[in-house]
Specification:
Layout: E1 17-19, E2 22-24, E3 33-35, H1 43-55, E4 60-62, H2 68-78
Parallel strand pairs: 3-4
Antiparallel strand pairs: 1-2
Length: 85
Amino acid sequence: MSIRPWRDITRKKTKKIKVGNVSIGGDSPISVQSMTNTPTTDIEATVKQIKDLEDVGADLVRVSCPDEDSALALKKITKQVKLPI
């Protein structure tokens, strides 16, 4: 029993998953994640933003694909970046 039991934090047991080479959940270390805020169809701007995030230490990047054109652009984007999306 601790002096301040309301401050004790118990970590919730979660399932570990892998996104690319990054483990999330379970006993994995905390990963730095971010999301692009460019239109996914703007491939050049989205790739630049992902590379900028990589330069500052992000482990994982989320990209939205609200339509078919964005999904097609994502295929081109993933070929130009190293971070898991």
